[in-house]
Design a protein that fits this description.
Radius of gyration: 43 Å
Strand content: 25-35%
Distance between the termini: 73 Å
Largest sheet: 6 strands, antiparallel, barrel
Number of strands: 21
Structural class: alpha+beta
Order of helices and strands: HEEEEEEHHEEEEEHEEEEEEEEEE
Strand order of the largest sheet: 2-11-14-13-12-15
Number of helices: 4
Length: 396
């Protein structure tokens, strides 16, 4: 086959390819036109809209923290001896004054008896010295007793008094040692496990026997940022809030798995300086724990009023969407076009409502139902609705 034939075949193939591509382009333009026609023919979705709910609220700030005991005591031995008995079960609730441990008291009972005998002897010596001094004072005027003898009697009386006081102190010390053989709970609370067993030799150097923590009331300790601390200070200065250093400022707290805020208490302490490295200040609240359900060391959350009462815009949680790192709501413009409106959110309120701090106006039409059928930029048919605490039960 010669070159003219090859050139002819190549031309035919090229014409075929051009024709095929032209056909594909024509089909694609037909498909796009059909899609656009279908979209134009599709009716605009219907959505339920409502202006934000306006309500008087108090802003709340939330803080994460940890529950701590109001008192924690290490139980240690103050005298040496063999541990005779243990008066509690590991982990039980004990009452203040309850005997927890008993050290063998017999050596200390003997020491008390010896100290009593020494006190009796010192008392007898003191009485004799007092009698001899009074006799010498009576006879010194008759020259039957010399002045030097009177001085000796006075010195003997002073020595006898000192010996008596020393014996009294010895008895007191011996009695204290005997009392320390019974180790009692200084506070009411939950005891830890025993660190030694009966029969062990404990030392007055401070052998740790167990610990006791107070549970009712209980502390909640948290760190407040410098920004929040300054904001509270400015609100107090303007008269909108009471100082969080006041011990009766109310708070609410919850455990990690609580839905609401079942625990109420008051502020009890704010530290005297901020931590320079962290930029936070330590604060503490106290709350009742009558059922002893909260255990020291548990994590929780606390919320505290951060403003006076004011009007706020509320939307249901179901109306909130997420756009990357921002929270948005869909609003309907005057031409019934949906638009995505970024908002800054505040506190959660009962009934599934959320405070909107900025981004919305009272007259905005917020989509509260039909979000699954709505997209920003499309036309919709808005239907009037109403935001209420039960709005979270609506189905999108």
């Amino acid at each position: 086959m010669g070159p003219p034939v090859i050139r002819t075949l190549a031309g035919v193939v090229a014409l075929a390819l051009v024709g095929g591509l032209a056909g594909l382009g024509w089909q694609a333009s037909r498909s796009t036109a059909a899609t656009m026609a279908q979209a134009a023919a599709r009716p605009a979705p219907s959505v339920v809209v409502s202006p934000p709910l306006v309500r008087r609220v108090v802003d709340q700030r939330e803080y994460a923290g940890r529950f701590e005991p109001t008192a924690s005591v290490e139980i240690r031995a103050r005298v040496s001896g063999y541990l005779q008995s243990i008066g509690f079960e590991d982990g039980q609730i004990v009452q203040a004054g309850q005997t927890l441990f008993t050290i063998d008291p017999r050596p200390y009972q003997a020491a008390v008896a010896e100290a009593r005998a020494q006190l009796s002897s010192a008392r007898a010596q003191r009485d004799l010295a007092d009698l001899e001094l009074r006799r010498a004072e009576q006879l010194v005027g008759t020259s039957a007793v010399s002045r030097s003898t009177l001085d000796q009697r006075r010195q003997q009386k002073q020595a006898a008094d000192a010996a008596f006081e020393l014996a009294q102190a010895g008895l007191t010390r011996a009695q204290l040692d005997l009392d320390f053989t019974e180790i009692k709970a200084p506070i009411s609370g939950r005891v830890s496990n025993r660190r030694v067993d009966a029969g062990s030799l404990v030392s007055d150097a401070g052998t740790l026997l167990t610990t006791v923590v107070a549970l009712d009331p209980i502390y909640f300790v948290f760190d407040m940022s410098e920004r929040d601390f300054v904001a509270y200070g400015r609100a107090v200065k303007s008269g909108d809030l009471r100082s969080i250093r006041d011990r009766d400022v109310p708070i609410e707290a919850r455990l990690q798995d609580d839905d609401g805020w079942p625990y109420q208490g008051t502020m009890s302490f704010v530290d005297n300086r901020l931590e320079s490295g962290a930029g936070t200040i330590r604060a503490r609240a106290v709350l009742a724990n009558s059922d002893l359900f909260i255990t020291p060391g548990q994590f929780g959350r606390l919320r505290l009023a951060s403003s006076g009462e004011h009007d706020a815009l509320l939307v249901p949680e179901a109306a909130l969407l997420t756009d990357q790192a921002s929270r948005i709501v869909l609003t309907v413009a005057e031409d019934d076009t949906l638009r995505a409106t970024p908002v800054r959110l505040g506190a959660r309120l009962p009934g599934g409502l959320r405070v909107v701090e900025s981004g919305l106006k009272a007259e905005d039409r917020v989509v509260i139902n039909g979000l699954l059928r709505a997209r920003a930029g499309q036309k919709v048919v808005p239907q009037p609705g109403e935001i209420a605490p039960a709005a979270t039960a609506m189905v999108n």
